């Protein structure tokens, strides 16, 4: 497995583009990703009960397991827009399908941006011919740009590995305005691969991969109206079809996991106003579920996050947050390390001076290791601190 | 029922005081509340799995249903302090009991402040004689001061009502550094009354009252290591004992509810860095549980809270937060009003200009009314916006 340059268009048979259609003032806001041969596809969508129109349309269309292309706009989420919003998403999909000479069912759609305002559908419609015309096998970066909102950098990655004497590639792009842990800003990711794989196995691999990556930077059930991850696999690598959970599947899963985890961490690093990248690893739990729950409560706590921003020796907030997870805990069996610095060991407070701890807190990368001393299961989640900049961005940005 | 001046010492047979013992630099940090006759008492304590030492001690002692006094320190939470912390709380209680010539079991204890640092027990011990000596039937305000941490104002209230031809009084004090919704800063409240009531009825009344007040400004299960509410009733009013759920009980419940709801709202208003007081009322739910859950998700959302701080027309964030509560919702049946201004009615976006909505958002008191259109149950919760000042306070304050 080796990293290669580029993102979604580093994969054979994939073209993409991004243009400015006028939803945003001047930045690009409309992306299209197309596979030359019809691809198999799988998606993971928001669990929010108020799903945006594009999510509803994509969930309908992906049932077929086939996908020719994905159209994405940023700047307007087309969420809380009722029947009109649904019709708009359907119409866009229909127009793209017509241009690509394919069935509307094979087109998926995603949106991100302001909630509750009708899509400027005419601007999008007018731009579709140009959008399709500008598709290019080097257009991945343009697509990566056009899906951003408050992100400060594009997120793309590609890798290559060998199987069945073929070079197989996976590429991905993502957007996620930093939030994530403070819930509900939209996360989008689109992954392409030229592997040949059966649709139900792609589905299985994607679900697993998302659970270990994008779902570890957000908390169970806390998702925006628009969250979407789609993976399309077009078979252009020419490997023999992966149709069972053997070696070929295992290799693909590993490569896919690499891409999704990389993109998930990139989203955290680009967190709104983030000044620190924080890994919360919970060990010694009775179950993986317990470990994830405790880690999520810590990573979600505004008090923990502001403590890291302030670089203060407030480790008690970490334990207090852990105690709120509803998981059985004893202070006497708990150990806590910050970047390897021992703070508490089996209920004994081990650090000597606040100043030592403040030195640790000054680092840009923080690893919180909490051992519950109850079992042998572990999980990690990733988050950021909570800064003045976060408040500024979210108080001023309309989304 | 009429409001009277003062707080806990407006109640017959109650003395209180607050002094500086040296846990904090210069502000008062040690409070004592004593009932001349032995009182019946009930308490509601944190559900956090890592309960602070004073909480564990108070939970043991309150089993008897009797209480002579409550000792409270601020500046140090005595949480995550292991066996040593437990012994410290026990020792303080013993010393107070000795001074008051009562059993240690009749003394309750609470602490709030920094987690994980041993109590400066010598400072407290040394101050106990002075503390007891300074008890006064006008010392309520001093106690109200001595329990504060990042609070900017004391919180006390008292009322009087008639029953059985007797004037019955209830007084209360509280502290809660604003947080609350962003979880886990400590909330303390101590309520005194001269009513004569059976201990199990006091317990019932307090539980109900806390559920409608303090539990409506915090979210189920999200509590600090130290949260404590205690009510003591000493019978000095001389009414015939309330020993069943009749008229006397009903009147007491109403009066107690008035005090707890008042104190709870005062805690929100004094929220860390709060610039707005926000009521979230959810109507039209299938159950009260659904209503509370949706309201809590809205009130808990950093994106909603920063939108109000920024005074932007980001109403979509309110619906997105609602959609995360796991409660069945349809955009088509939802109505949303902000201070009576119609934003969405049964899925139709009704407001015309963002500028209209921005006018509403500029108000200091905001009422979010969300009707789910699914049933006839409703609940309200109270919260604040999330401001730069919140980040500043929590990044710099060590607690």
In brief:
The structure is a homodimer of 399-residue chains. Chain A is an alpha+beta fold and 399 residues long.
Structure description:
2 copies of one chain form a homodimer. With 399 residues, chain A is of the alpha+beta class. The first copy, chain A, has 2 domains: 2-269, L-amino peptidase D-ALA esterase/amidase (4-Layer Sandwich); 277-396, Ubiquitin-like (UB roll). Chain A contains 11 helices and 15 strands. The first copy, chain A, has helices spanning 53-61, 82-99, 121-133, 140-146, 199-212, 247-269, 288-300, 302-310, 315-323, 354-361, 388-396; strands at residues 2-4, 14-19, 30-45, 66-76, 107-114, 155-163, 166-176, 187-193, 228-233, 277-285, 335-338, 341-345, 348-349, 365-371, 377-384. In chain A, the strands form 2 sheets. In chain A, strands 1, 2, 3, 4, 5, 6, 7, 8 and 9 form a 9-stranded mixed β-sheet that branches. A 6-stranded mixed β-sheet of chain A has the order 13-12-11-14-10-15. In chain A, helix 5 (199-212) links the parallel strand 8 (187-193) and strand 9. The radius of gyration of chain A is 22 Å and the shape is globular. Chain A starts with a strand and ends with a helix. Mean pLDDT of chain A is 91; it is low at 180-184. At the A-B interface, helix 8, helix 9, strand 13 and helix 11 of A face helix 8, helix 9, strand 13 and helix 11 of B.
